[in-house]
Amino acid sequence: MDKQDRKPTIDSKYIQQHLANERTYLAWIRTAIAMAGIGFVFLNLHFTLQIKVLRLEDQVVAAVGFIAFLLGIATIVFATVDYFNKQKQINNQSFKSPIRMVFVVSISLVVVMSVLMASYFMKQSIL
């Protein structure tokens, strides 16, 4: 099959945009793996390095680790759905930047991190 027999596809018109979409997808996957890994490391360090055992503390650490793992899984699902939606939008020339999603993710992360840090320091001041 030589070059003249090949027909251009819709995807081939927007190669750069599709490659950028794939890079974004892979960045989300790396983020998801890191989130799940942080949950696992959090649990492992707590239960490995723990000197005194408090049942409530163990439950909180287990919940935070499990939530981090679930957020990693949810991020993989979100990234996959988002990848295919953007692929369709690129081919239809109807792509719009997801400004609302950026705000939602940013605010959610700030709130979650603030709550975790506050609970950690409150626990330290109680002990």
Describe the structure.
- The protein has 127 residues and is mostly helical.
- The protein is 83% helix and 0% strand.
- It has helices spanning 10-13, 15-49, 55-92, 99-126.
Helix content: over 70%
Which class best fits the helix and strand makeup? mainly alpha
Euclidean distance between termini CA atoms: 74 Å
Q: What's the helix-strand series?
A: HHHH
Largest sheet, in brief, is:
none
Overall geometry: elongated
Number of helices: 4
Nearest-integer average pLDDT: 81
**Low-pLDDT stretches:** none
Query: What is the CA-atom radius of gyration, in angstroms?
Result: 21 Å
Strand content: under 5%
Number of separate strands: 0
Oligomer: single chain
State the main characteristics.
about 85% helix, about 130 residues, single chain, mainly alpha, elongated
Topology, pairings included?
Blueprint: H1 10-13, H2 15-49, H3 55-92, H4 99-126
What's the short version?
By secondary structure, the protein is mostly helical. The protein has helices spanning about 10-15, 15-50, 55-90, 100-125. The longest helix is centred in the middle third of the chain and has 38 residues, at about 55-90.
